[in-house]
Amino acid sequence: MEAGKLDRRITLQRYGITYNQDNEPLEAWEDIATVWASVAYVSDGEKIRAAQVGASVTVRFQIRYSSLVADLSAKDRVRFDGHIFDLSGVKPLGRLQGFELTAASQVNG
Questions:
Q1: What pTM does this model have?
Q2: Contact by Cβ (8 Å): 58, 42
Q3: Disulfide engineering: 98 pairs with which of 28, 34, 93, 106, CB 3.0-4.6 Å?
Q4: CATH number of the domain that 54 lies in?
Q5: Number of domains in the chain
Q6: What is the pLDDT of residues 4-45, one digit of tens each?
């Protein structure tokens, strides 16, 4: 993985439960880490269904391995360029070198 290709900042997020000062549970997406990544747009599509238009885009992110991202899964998501991308795949790249993340963003019009 070439460092020069990791030229975009992405934020990895995980859904979790925290507690406020009154010990009431708060469910929210929390940042795991902000990392450098390469970004490749794989596909985009548009569907017209029941008078609604929906657009989606699939992206592949490549990131370096670190202990902060070692347990990434398809339950997590990526925030990039003002959009939220739901992970559909997390593939290791080599032995502790990095990950390839396949993600999709849905935009309803």
A1: 0.81
A2: yes
A3: 93
A4: 2.40.10.270
A5: 1
A6: 789 999 999 999 998 889 999 999 999 999 999 999 988 766
Burial (CB < 10 A; 0-12, 13-18, 19+), residue 18, is: exposed
Confidence band (pLDDT; 50, 70, 90) for 80?
very high
**What token pair was written down for 59?**
């992206």
Query: Tokens 């070198």 sit at which residue?
Result: 97
What single-letter DSSP state applies at residue 70?
A: T
Which residues, listed in sequence order, are joined to residue 80 by a DSSP beta bridge?
83
CA distance 6 to 72: 18
H/E stretch holding 35 = strand 25-49
List the domain range (segments joined by +) for residue 52.
3-108
Q: CA nearest 88: which of 80, 99, 77, 79?
A: 77
Are 30 and 14 a contacting pair, CB within 8 Å?
yes
